[in-house]
Give the backbone structure.
Amino acid sequence: MKKQITKFFRASLFFSLVLAFMSFQVASAQQTVNGTVVDETGVGIPGANVLVQGTSKGAVTDFDGNFSISASSSDVLVVSFLGYVTQSVAVGNQTSITVTLKEDAAQLDEVVVIGYGTAKKSDVTGAVSQVTAKSFENQPLTRVENALQGRAAGVTVAGSGAPGKGIKVRIRGVNSITGNNDPLVVVDGVFGGDLRTINPNNIASMEVLKDASALAIYGSRGSNGVILVTTKKGSGKAKVTLDQFVTISNINKRLPTLSSGEFARFENDIFTADPNNAGSPPPYSDAELSIFDADPIRYQDLMFQTGVTNNTQLSVSGGSDDKVRYFVSGNFIDQEGTQITSNYRRYSFRSNLSKEFNDKFSVSANVTASREITHNDQDVFNSGDGSAILRAITWDPTAPVRDANGDYILRSPREVANNNYNPIRRFELSDHDVTADRLNLTLNGKYNFTDNFSYTLITAVSTLHRNTESFRVEGDFEATGFTNISYQNNNVTSHQVSNILNWNNEFGKHNIDVTGVYEFQGTRALNNGYGVNDLNVGGLYLADESANESFSNSGNESAIQSYLGRAQYNYDGFLYLTASMRVDESSRFAKDSRTGYFPSGALALNLGNTDFVENLGLSTLKLRAGWGKVGNQNINSTARFSLNNNSGLYTIDGETTNTGSVQSQEGNPDLTWETTTQTNVGIDFGFLNGRITGSIDYFNKDTEDLLLQTIVPGTSIRTFINAGEVNNKGIDFSISADIIENEDFSWNSSFNLSHIKNKVTKLNGDTEFIVGNVSGIGGGGIRLNVIKVGEPLGTFWGYNAMGTWKTTDNIPLDPDGAPVAVPGDEKFALDENGEREFQTIGSGLPDVTFGFNNTFTYKNWDLNVFLNGSLGFDVWNQVRGTISGNGGNRSDLSPTVYDRWTPENETDLPRYGTGNILNSNRWIEKGDFIRLSNLRLGYTFDENLIKGINSLQVYGSGQNLFIITDYTGFDPEVTSIVRGGANEDAGSGVDVGAFPNPVSFTFGVKVTF
């Protein structure tokens, strides 16, 4: 038995040795493995690294994602590419392999654009917020600005629900009193981009530069922050993507007003209460009241309609073996507004082409073109009585749009309510069209002298031609009203040349990156127009000659020349230093004042690899501090010159008529840069190996030598001066987390919050305040804003309302001994002379803005929930005041009319007919809100479901589904100003009938071939 066991072990050992030898021979046999590396949509990834694990043997994929490598069956291939999760694949007996790489959200954020170059996010020393396409791809967008809303700390976005209207974007508060506070938009290195015209589907990422150490590289351009837009580039096999969605929008809210019958009865009550009308029949008969009750006229319903938006996006991208990359896209939007007769259409095209000739020389050419057509923008119909929407709300609810003969009713038959002109007639008969054509051409070239030294040339030309053809039926002193016909042509041409030298190198643990720039940009604008009114014609091109013709011609040119130097130093991934100096020379200032110097410096310490951080349970910790200066030149190019305007005909001797002119502007040759100095301290942190990341920044900005437009004392002549200082300080906080991440279910969440305090710290000389130029409803020279030391920009200026005077009150006397009021009058805070006293009564600038974005995926389903909000600001609800019979409105349409003060019921609502005014805090309301901006549910079908289709997704979403707010108007987020010419930030929070954001539902399909 023992011998048999011994023989068995000997045989087994021999057999095992034979198998091991044979396995060794097989394993040692090398074979050629061909493969393709693709992304999750099946598109090849060029430049991916393929490495045999444990060796230095490797390969790089070509432009189609293909590779070839020699490996044995026992080898493991490690495949990696920036922005994707590294994959390990056993070779085995395979000779052909397809490797699918999944996107890695953490790595995608690794590289950010910092201006004139890129950097790893871990290497950035300034305050930079990045918004990638992945964060907003689940929200159907027609506007780029909406992609920024609530997704970047320190960035506030507020707009209008009107189709095609501009959206206000502000970065870390507002600086300028008179000038423009819009941030600079740089698209693929070219200045002056317009976010409104960019197709969101073309964007790969957006970086928002917020602190001076990041902004100073743009000098005078960066005074209000910088938004860097990087558009998509093609690679790999050809890919065609079609995105089609339809949006249905409605203004679901209606402001409370008296119905037709209620209004008529109230007018009857007022009429019969007047002793002078004793014995006269009331204005409205019982028969009319019955008609109004049965079929009330609701002008809010007549003004609003269901809006439908069609959006079609098509793109083609890819790359070829000869190192040509391309991305071509087209977009068409047709947006029917929620206000009658309003419409917006946009056609846009983009072509991004690049060619790498060899390792040293590459060229790229970008072409973008767009056409926008805006029809009947409601702001064009605004007047001193408020917006067109407000005038519709306060029009006579007992007057139909047309009479029994089918003709429009021009005015209220009984001269009640606002007694303006028929608001529906105005829109249905008017045609106001603005067509804007834009063409941008960019040619970039890069030459690498060595692996460390390169030269980049950026050249760009852009043109804008805006044509306005306006046929507006207004109505005036004539029984049938009058027509205003006008033509306007605006042509703007700009060019840019940027020369960029970059040198970088590593010396052991030391890394140095030096950039030098010389660039030039020039702009030329020409404007001309023709107008005529008092005509009764049937169309735009049928205008007869009229004595009321007017002509206008104007133009301006400006240029800026810049020099820049920046050095970045990195020691062993631990210590980071950045310093820059930019010198700008602007033609908008006189020769001795046109040069501005804008330095900056920043320091960062990366403590992520220290024992201290590991003991705290952190995976990342970086401390940052920066300081710098930026400038602002955003004034008219003629501001330093004195100007005269023709001003009609004059007679000196009483007989001879002479053409006269009057000075309109007094030049100021001493104008110079408005300068902002900013300090920023920040912390970047991460937990759980990057599953949770965030940042906290504290900033302090002081803007001095404010460029202010004012009036020469004792005249109506405008002039520009440098006067005053404004401070903005606050905290930006952002955090994101992969809360759940497994094979079937994931939950990614991000939250950001910004707290900003704005304050005017100094004005010219001993001046304590300057009354602003935001006009109130009804005219009369009423101004609603003030620029006052110690208060924020956009501070409201008015009377402090304190209810009503009661019969038991001790009513003060005026200097003549007469009571200043009678019981039932509105009660205001009075000065020592017994007169109403103007005070600061609120502010329209929010203290806190925030956004909360959540994306859930379960197998093939995805759900996006996005909320945003603002806190700590007021809205001046002049709409509510006007409905209540103020601002020139002849009648009270508010449901509170029966709650007004009477001798029998002494309430805090003033008695009827006392001429209550709008510019008091009676109409100031809290604007705080939380909005569900987007709720989207999508389903992605399995690959290869349909031959030839790589990806197929269907989705439905709702935008602006609900808002939590105490504001009683349409929308607390929108702002409107009665007349143009006012800085919209000075009038922030003023609502004179702003176009509300609609509730929208979107249904779409996205296909990739």
In short: Residues 1-28, 105-109 have pLDDT under 50 and may be disordered. Residues 2-103 form a domain with the Immunoglobulin-like fold (CATH 2.60.40.1120). Residues 2-28 form the longest helix (27 residues).
